[in-house]
Write a sequence for this structure.
């Protein structure tokens, strides 16, 4: 089957390209700017007409959470207008769409893992623009999967794991928030899951919105400690982690205190489940230490 991926240089897009490499059952084409600008409808129409995929995956987004607070227009262009264009254009050509969204659509006041039917209430512009994108996709193309994931990191692009390894190089101590809970999710596990889901996007599929994050939960400080344990084992940089409240790490955008996602509906509908968040950490740390991106 042929899959068109909107986005080329991001974490998930590059992980998808890697996961599809050498597979003869999947032809995957990743298009990013300037060849495909999802905020430009004509560019989207042209890419779909040219590529004629069986499934469209949207891995493009505006992901700068703090910058979004002052860059509202760009955030909505990437996260609402772009997804709407993709969904309208794919619907017009009878192509199902898989769109990726975020745990930041919730306000974080929950006390048990969020299910899909829980009310959304984003705290910042990034989350609000992603929620607007979810609505646009659901309205425009009935054959959609909207997958909310969380705390994405991997070997490619910019992410928290890479930041921690970089900052630890030359520092003995790092202060990291210990009162925001979630599940760090590997972009490589997301890519493998997307390749399992894409062939299931057929007539009668259980289209809709699902959570798709790693199992288990932790706080950013736990994630940092897991990164440094793995790094120490691999001979990489490490630092001691001071656990701090969010109030000691002020940021322009407020993050949800609790954004753990219950991903069991996806498993029930499609048989896809991501591993515990701790599992992929050592392998990705080793890759990052070995590779220059
Ligand atoms: N990162 C995370 O922690 C999380 C991400 N998500 C969601 O997962 C998805 C993938 O995220 P991730 O891979 O981390 O994102 P990245 O920030 O790594 O990559 C996003 C990509 O989108 C591209 N892009 C932005 N605007 C456009 C546009 N108008 N046209 C074409 N391409 C565009 C960027 O291109 P360029 O390089 O040109 O700027 C970039 O390559 C997104 O929907 C995101 O919201 C969900 C939860 C957590
Ligand atoms: C770098 C750093 C961050 N932090 C805190 C800030 C913040 O509260 C938390 C997370 O840091 P970041 O700002 O890197 O992560 P953030 O950009 O909030 O990550 C989010 O990105 C978007 C795209 C999503 O969709 C979310 O699921 C989530 O992954 O860690 C520290 O406590 N110490 C540090 O040294």
């Amino acid at each position: 089957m042929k899959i068109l991926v909107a986005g080329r240089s991001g974490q998930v897009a590059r992980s998808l390209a890697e996961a599809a490499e050498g597979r003869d059952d999947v032809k995957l084409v990743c298009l990013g700017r300037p060849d495909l600008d999802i905020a430009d409808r004509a560019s989207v129409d042209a890419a779909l007409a040219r590529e004629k995929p069986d499934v469209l995956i949207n891995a493009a987004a505006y992901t700068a959470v703090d910058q979004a607070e002052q860059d509202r227009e760009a955030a909505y262009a990437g996260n609402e207008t772009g997804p709407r264009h993709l969904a309208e254009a794919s619907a017009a050509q009878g192509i199902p769409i898989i769109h990726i969204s975020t745990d930041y659509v919730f306000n974080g006041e929950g006390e048990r893992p969020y299910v899909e039917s829980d009310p959304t209430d984003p705290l910042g512009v990034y989350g609000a623009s992603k929620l607007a994108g979810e609505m646009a996709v659901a309205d425009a193309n009935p054959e959609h999967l909207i997958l909310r994931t969380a705390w994405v990191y991997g070997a490619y692009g910019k992410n928290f794991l890479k930041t921690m390894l970089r900052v630890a190089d030359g520092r003995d101590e790092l202060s990291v928030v210990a009162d925001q809970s979630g599940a760090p999710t590997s972009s490589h596990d997301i890519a493998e899951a997307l390749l399992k889901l894409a062939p299931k996007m057929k007539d009668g599929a259980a289209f809709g919105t699902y959570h798709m994050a790693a199992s288990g939960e932790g706080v950013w400080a736990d994630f940092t400690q897991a990164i440094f344990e793995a790094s120490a084992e691999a001979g990489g940089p490490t630092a001691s982690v001071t656990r701090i409240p969010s109030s000691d790490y002020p940021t322009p955008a407020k993050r949800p205190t609790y954004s753990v996602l219950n991903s069991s509906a996806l498993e029930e509908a499609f048989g896809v489940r991501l591993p515990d968040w701790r599992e992929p950490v050592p392998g990705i740390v080793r890759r990052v230490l070995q590779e220059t991106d």
